[in-house]
Design brief:
This protein has a single domain, classed as Outer membrane efflux proteins (OEP) (Up-down Bundle). Helices cover 59% and strands 14% of the residues. The protein contains eleven helices and nine strands. The strands form three sheets. Strands 1-7-6-5-4 form a five-stranded mixed sheet. Helix 2 (66-78) crosses helix 4 and helix 4 packs antiparallel against helix 11. The protein is elongated, with a radius of gyration of 38 Å.
Length: 492
Amino acid sequence: MTYIQRPLTLLTMLSVLALASCTISPLAKYRQIAAPAAWIEPLPFKQAHDGKLTDLKNWWQQFNDPVLLQLIEAAQKVSPDIESAKARVIAAQAAVTLTEGQLLPSLTADASASRNHNGVVFPTGNTANISLNTSWELDVWGKNKADKNEKQAQLSGNSALWHEARVIVAAQTATQYLDYRLCENLNNIAKKSAESNAETARLSNLSANAGFLAPASASQALAIAAEASSQFKRQSLQCTLMVKSLVALTAIPESDLRNALAKDSAVMPTPKGITVNQIPANLLLQRPDVLNAERNVAAAGFEVTVSQAQRYPRLSLAGNIGLTYDNTMRTFFPRTTGKITDGTTWSIGPVAVSLPIFDAGIRAANITAAKAQYEAAKNTYESVARNAVREVEEAMAKLNSTSQRLEDVNKAADGFKISLAATQMRYQASLANLFDLEDARRADLQAQTNVVTLTNERVLAWISLYRAMGGGWTQALNSPVVIFDHDLKQTE
């Protein structure tokens, strides 16, 4: 026997079709990012081994420094920022899956079986039933689709931020490593200064004891030597503290880290250059933070659609199909046909309509708040885009400045080195006093310090440019970087 339920009437079906033809849809209007047509600062000059924009992903290998690569890899493995970004990506993926499921009907299966005895009239019999039940909320106003698009936009933005977190950790690790190498160079300079001053103090003391130098001058030489020794010890402490910072950043045991750092001690790694041959607007396509901000704008626009749809009726449709088997009658009346004891059942409906009538302005307030968030997201997006251009301009300005100054400080260092050697010869021949010698030594040490400090500054500027250009990340597989101006209205 087949049991059929028909709760849907022709009038109900026509009502559903009429409602489905009336939807809320955002009308997207594209507006390109407001970015300058050209760079203000001169582009970095090409070096002998100039890198290309497409090679930014392998840019760290161009330092030819295995220790740097080891530190970056270790830091990225233990970085809480990267793990947090990864967790947000996973959560966003789950949210997309959830919203996709809301667009499709849900299906459940039920099964039951029983054995019963109905007294003296009917014998013992068996009953079994299996059925499939489905329910579906009709996305008449596009709410669920907008919710899905919002979650996909957030997933795209979070994925970009995961890449940005890796770029940031790599840049921070490289910066600390370079600062340590700079500290080693400054420590070597301070050590040479302490040793030179100690030798001067020894010779001055011998000359004073022999009556060739005033005791006051010998005392001054001893004081200068003690001050230089103190400066050397203070610089050594700074290097020790930097090692401990690298241990905390990379989770590498300090003994292993010191052994690795001992290789190529005080050698300042220098990268190959980066060619900036794109206009600012194109550069923004390589910035993960810009994409994230743009995706936030899109997500906020879809949230407006979701809030708008909350003001309209919600429709849901249910249905089921089942198979029933009962052999009680067959046992008692063996000549009866099977149609009496088993069969299928199915039903479509009911169509349920939920119509909001009064909510004290809550839904209207949600729409207002969603539109305000959309405007805030647009402002944030434009600010992030401007900041991206600013960071590239600043990095190129530093590169140009350090390039111009580096030649000068090298010439100055060579000159002060020659001057110190000449002054030392004059002092040994009693043609110059201790004050002249110390002035020449301080000028030489300062010149050496300027060279290593400026070299470090230039490498850090390259790292800043690498980070400002997105670290080799591209969004080729993502949506274009645009702002969506959503004009939300009801279209009949």
